[in-house]
Specification:
alpha+beta; 3 helices
């Protein structure tokens, strides 16, 4: 699962490769709302208000072990302003994505 918080729009977008439902995203939005209430009260800041949950259609995985790779791939696409579904990757591409991520991580000597 990847939850993206959009503070200006007071929205939480959920990308779930296992096919979450509206109840999942509503629960996450409620938790985000409570978290923001806590921080705004602690720091005497203006309240962010109530966040709404939006379930986004995501590429679906067929196994129970690829959640992390799907979440990372969704995160990369969203951070670049792209729709993850438009990137042409699916369950079949996960081994390549996993290998590519490993190469990128191993290349950085600070890890």
């Amino acid at each position: 699962k990847l939850a993206v918080v959009d503070v200006p729009r007071k929205s939480v977008y959920l990308y779930d490769s296992l096919g979450g439902d509206q109840d999942d995203v509503d629960a996450i939005a409620k938790n985000v709302t409570e978290l923001f209430k806590f921080f705004t009260k602690k720091h005497r800041a203006k309240s962010a208000g109530t966040f709404r949950g939006v379930l986004k259609v995501s590429n679906k995985q067929r196994t129970g072990v690829d959640c992390g790779v799907f979440a990372i791939m969704n995160m990369v696409a969203v951070s670049l302003g792209l729709d993850p579904r438009s990137q042409g990757w699916s369950q079949r591409a996960i081994p390549h994505c996993r290998n590519r991520l490993m190469i990128l991580l191993m290349r950085d000597k600070n890890w």
